[in-house]
Amino acid sequence: MPINLLLVDDQAEVLDGLKLVFKKSEHEVFAASSGEQAVQILNSERIDVVLTDFNLGAGMDGLAVLRHANALPVPPAVILLTAFGTIEGAVEALKDGAFNYLTKPVNVKELRAVIDKASEHNLLIRENQELRARIDRHFNIEGMIGETSQMQQIYEKVRLIAPTKASVLILGESGTGKEVLAKAIHQASPRARKPFVAVHCAALPETLLESELFGHERGAFTGAVSKRQGRFELASGGTIFLDEIGEIPLAMQVKLLRVLEAREIQRVGGNETVSVDVRILAATNRDLTEEVAEGRFREDLFYRLNVVSVTLPPLRVRRGDIPLLVRHFLEDFARDNNRDVPEVSREAMEQLVNYHWPGNVRELRNIMENTFVFLRGKTILPENLPAGFSKPTAEPAEGLAFPLGLPLEQVETDYLKRTLAACDGNRTRAAESLCISRRTLQRRIKELGIED
Ligand SMILES: Nc1ncnc2c1ncn2[C@@H]1O[C@H](COP(=O)(O)OP(=O)(O)OP(=O)(O)O)[C@@H](O)[C@H]1O
Ligand SMILES: [Mg+2]
């Protein structure tokens, strides 16, 4: 990885010697013969690594250069050169944020190794900054991280439906972000300043659910000591989110249907009807069409709720978003705990990207939190990840069903196309998820005549 390297030494011979070491390297080399000159270069060039002598004659010393470097918006890695007798100072410098130090006379091999390490470190930092910038760019929908085409399609849909009053049915496996999406729709809607009220339908028994949703009059049932407003009334002017709608009992479904049709409710134990202005969002990880077919979910309610539906993709079909999500969660945890945001090594990130994530984004968040809590160093390495991450899984794209009797080639063609699409056309990732080499994949793509 080529870097911009700044060499600082007040002794011309030493400086020339150092320049010579890196003359044939891929790095761009800058040289300064004083601390002041080093500062000038640091201010005008984007330096990745600084190698500076500790003693720099009359003016600023190496420590002052280090401090200046550390105060830059993108601090370079600083390596100090120390002569015998200044080692204690160098150790101090490490505490001040120096990347490392070397003692004179310099061993060339060691020097190259340290510079390599420093540039690798710098590269990780820069990659993370790049991720940060991408998060900022794609964070346009409140709270939702992701820039893959699958997520872009969701954002586009949200932009279209948010301003309307249409009911939205949000579908997707557990942990794919259905609640996040519901909040995002609310936030992007003209109702954003009014309440967002979430009801977890599965958590409540039928009788409680009714009074929870619609409220009750005083004395409506034992324990109803005073009149109470239900969630529909509390959400007035705003949005109600009916989570796990697939779990509500049939009797309640009838009542809900009435609300959706008439936009009015009746409190439990009352006969007054109260009209409510509430937008309804609902979510489920069940297959509602199947529930309808089996008679567990009312068809009329299904059509009322399903005016617009949005299906969140499982994380394993949008693996391209994993690095962004990882970075986003680490930043969250670091902020909450007043710690630095750790870097993630390449190998660790690769494992995270290759895992099949049955629990989707929620599982990823949990794993990252677990890793963060127990992390001692500054960089997450594979061994810091919980066990079970070492083997990439060959989880195929979703929803593939092939009737028996198809020509095998057709099945393979279809399958490869779907896998490629799920990997955003990235052949390396597709090959990984298929557990074949990239070369084999290329060959089959060619043989089967698959266009990207
Ligand atoms: N696109 C996303 N960007 C950032 N965080 C996300 C995203 N999707 C999900 N999350 C996070 O993942 C976790 C699970 O999300 P959420 O509760 O919305 O999932 P869900 O689909 O409602 O799951 P369930 O069906 O189990 O209720 C939350 O911590 C949420 O913040
Ligand atoms: Mg949920």
Give a short summary of the structure.
With 452 residues, this protein is of the alpha/beta class.
What does this structure look like?
- By secondary structure, this protein is an alpha/beta fold.
- It folds into 4 domains: 4-135, Rossmann fold; 163-311, 3-Layer(aba) Sandwich (Rossmann fold); 315-384, Helicase, Ruva Protein, domain 3 (Orthogonal Bundle), CATH 1.10.8; 394-452, Arc Repressor Mutant, subunit A, CATH 1.10.10.60.
- Helix content is 46%, strand content 14%.
- It is built from 18 helices and 16 strands.
- It has helices at 12-23, 35-44, 62-70, 87-95, 108-138, 149-161, 178-187, 206-214, 231-234, 250-262, 288-293, 299-305, 322-337, 346-354, 360-374, 408-422, 427-434, 438-447; strands spanning 4-8, 28-32, 49-53, 77-82, 100-103, 168-171, 196-200, 215-216, 228-229, 239-243, 264-266, 273-275, 279-284, 308-311, 343-344, 379-380.
- A 5-stranded parallel sheet has the order 2-1-3-4-5, sandwiched between helices. Strands 7-10-13-6-14 form a 5-stranded parallel sheet. Strands 8-9 form a two-stranded antiparallel ribbon.
- α3 (62-70) links the parallel β3 (49-53) and β4 (77-82).
- The longest helix has 31 residues, at 108-138.
- Bound molecules: adenosine-5'-triphosphate and magnesium ion.
- Adenosine-5'-triphosphate binds next to α7 and α15.
